Every structure is written in structure tokens, then in C-alpha cells.
């Protein structure tokens, strides 16, 4: 299952399938089945929010592509958040997390929304107290983390949730089967779209690798007033720059962009045609392109060929 390189621009990054790349676990230690199962239970437990009315799955709903289908997320108090809810597919290979990259690990990301006063709004000491009062959690944390004293802590909670999230791997889309030699797995339209993606449309500039993201931050001309990456890392190039989202299951995860301002993939492609013409301090990867209506449809067909939902049955919460 070789990597597909762009020609003649072979210096650009390849695209491929996730199973060609190892997952780098914290301390190089793959989590146990018990830790993953515990993390899944926590993911669906509303005890993780201050009012006990919201779980991780409230915003990252498996039935909605691990998003919420909304323009912007909603906190446990009904607060409309400033950004769109990102999906959770294939985060095992990510390096930085959140739209602005403020979390350097999946464990840190897992705990962030719990403590955020506009999201789940629960301080971790109170969460630990709640979990310790539940016999199920007393038992299963002790079994999953026998060497951790105490077994229920910020570290083990974050590790468990992140361990579950790393299992949300999408790697059997029509594209993946096509790359492995199943030539009819993708439609003719999708195959044309892939050629555009790799060439004329320049999507590969940022959406590359097995998960179609360079894990970088770019200003793509979405004028929301949000400073993006600049709040974390000051600089001219970080102003209005946001993390490149992976495109796995992108058909399921609209609306799009960091502010949820674009409702369809066709409109997303049109944005990439229009934005460079308007000028401004855009990322240099935002090259000028021209595409016909048919080519836009072909690109959308290719992105549709990245669809491989990860079926997850909600955990039974104690």
C-alpha cells in the first residue's frame, strides 16, 4: 500500500492511509482495554459537567460525525461558544489540539472543556470528588490504574478519556480501499476530484498526510474577528490563523470553518476560489485557483470518498 505522491511536485507531502503510520502513545505505552473502556464511560457521563446536564458526547455526538451539527458549540449553561465544534476522528496522529492549538496533548485537550467556565464548567477537584463517590468508578479506576495512587486523579481521568478518543480511527473509506488497489472503490467523479485535490485545486498544500491535515495554522480569509493562533503564539503569520482540520468524514461534520460560517462543502471550495482574489494577509498556501462548477462537484465527490463513520454505541453510565 504505497503512498501516492504528487507529480511532478514530488517535494510536496504525500497522502496515504492511516494504517501506514504508527500511533505515538504517551510514554510509548499503548493503553489497556480497561483504560479505553473507562474512558468511553467517562466520555458519555454527564457528571463531567457542573450542572450534570452535559457530557463530552453532547458536543461530540457519534451520530453527528463526533460534532454537534451546529454553527458554534453550546455550553452547559446555554452559552453560545465562539467556535465550531471540531470532530474527533483520527486525533491519535495529531500534535496540537483545539482550533488555536493551545493543547499539546490529547490528554490536555480532554480536560480543557471540563474546566472551561463557558463549556462544561466543572473544576477538576469537584469532578474527582464526584467520581470517588461512585462505586463503579472506584472499582474500575483501581483496576485500570493499579500503580496510580490515588487511582482517580486529573492524570488518570485525562488519560482514560484520551485513550478512548485515540480509538476513533477512520481508515476504511472508499479512498483507503482505492489506495490499497480496489480501483472501483471510488467513483469516476471522486477519482477526478482526487486529481484536482492533488494538483489544480492545490488542496494538498494544507490537507496532506493520511488524515489530510498538515497540523499547521493558516489564515484562509474567514473574517470572523477571532485572532486564532495569535492568542497562543504571537506573530504576524498567526493572526487569524486556525488549525487545518482533517478531512476524514468531512461529509458528516458540517457546518464548516472555525466559526461554522459555511454550510456546505461546495461553498467551502468556492471560498478557496474567492478568498485569494480579495487579498489580505492570507497564508501563502492560499494560492489563486480557478475551478469550473463540474470541478467543484468532483472535489466534493472526492471528499465524500473519505467517509468511513466510526460506529460507537453509547456507554452505559453508572
Structural features, described:
The chain has 318 residues and is mainly α. It folds into 2 domains: 26-165, Orthogonal Bundle (Cytochrome Bc1 Complex, Chain D, domain 2), CATH 1.10.760; 171-304, Cytochrome Bc1 Complex, Chain D, domain 2 (Orthogonal Bundle). The protein is 31% helix and 1% strand. It is built from 10 helices and 2 strands, in the order H-H-H-H-H-H-H-H-E-E-H-H. It has helices at 33-43, 56-59, 106-115, 124-132, 135-144, 154-165, 174-179, 188-198, 265-278, 293-304; strands spanning 217-218, 242-243. The protein has a two-stranded antiparallel sheet with strand order 1-2. Helix 1 (33-43) runs antiparallel to helix 5 (135-144), helix 8 packs across helix 10 and helix 9 crosses helix 10. The longest helix has 14 residues, at 265-278. It is globular, with a radius of gyration of 20 Å. The model is unreliable at 1-13 (pLDDT under 50).
Fraction in beta strands: under 5%
The top-level CATH class of the largest domain is: Mainly Alpha
The shape is globular
CATH architecture of the largest domain: Orthogonal Bundle
Amino acid at each position: 500500500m504505497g503512498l501516492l505522491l504528487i507529480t511532478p511536485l514530488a517535494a510536496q507531502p504525500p497522502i496515504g492511509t492511516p494504517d501506514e503510520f504508527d500511533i505515538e502513545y504517551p510514554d510509548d505505552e499503548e493503553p489497556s482495554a480497561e483504560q479505553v473502556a473507562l474512558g468511553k464511560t467517562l466520555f458519555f457521563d454527564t457528571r463531567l459537567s457542573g450542572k450534570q446536564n452535559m457530557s463530552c458526547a453532547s458536543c461530540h455526538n457519534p451520530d453527528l460525525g463526533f460534532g454537534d451539527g451546529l454553527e458554534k458549540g453550546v455550553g452547559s449553561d446555554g452559552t453560545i461558544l465562539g467556535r465550531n465544534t471540531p470532530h474527533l476522528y483520527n486525533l491519535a496522529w495529531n500534535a496540537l489540539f483545539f482550533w488555536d492549538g493551545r493543547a499539546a496533548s490529547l490528554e490536555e485537550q480532554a480536560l480543557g472543556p471540563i474546566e472551561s467556565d463557558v463549556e462544561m464548567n466543572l473544576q477538576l477537584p469537584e469532578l474527582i470528588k464526584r467520581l470517588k463517590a461512585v462505586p463503579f468508578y472506584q472499582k474500575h479506576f483501581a483496576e485500570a490504574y493499579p500503580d496510580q495512587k490515588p487511582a482517580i486523579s486529573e492524570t488518570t481521568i485525562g488519560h482514560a478519556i484520551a485513550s478512548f478518543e485515540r480509538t476513533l480511527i477512520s481508515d476504511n473509506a472508499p479512498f483507503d480501499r482505492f489506495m490499497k488497489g480496489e480501483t472501483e472503490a471510488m467513483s469516476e467523479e471522486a477519482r477526478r476530484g482526487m486529481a484536482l485535490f492533488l494538483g489544480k485545486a492545490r488542496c494538498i498544500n494544507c490537507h496532506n498526510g493520511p488524515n489530510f491535515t498538515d497540523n499547521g495554522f493558516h489564515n484562509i480569509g474567514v473574517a470572523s474577528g477571532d485572532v486564532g493562533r495569535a492568542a497562543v503564539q504571537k506573530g504576524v503569520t498567526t493572526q487569524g490563523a486556525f488549525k487545518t482540520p482533517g478531512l476524514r468524514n468531512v461529509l458528516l461534520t458540517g457546518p464548516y470553518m472555525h466559526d461554522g460560517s459555511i454550510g456546505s462543502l461546495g461553498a467551502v471550495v468556492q471560498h478557496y476560489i474567492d478568498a485569494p482574489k480579495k487579498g489580505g494577509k492570507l497564508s501563502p498556501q492560499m494560492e489563486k485557483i480557478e475551478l469550473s462548477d463540474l470541478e467543484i462537484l468532483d472535489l466534493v465527490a472526492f471528499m465524500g470518498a473519505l467517509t468511513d463513520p466510526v460506529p460507537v454505541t453509547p456507554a452505559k453510565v453508572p
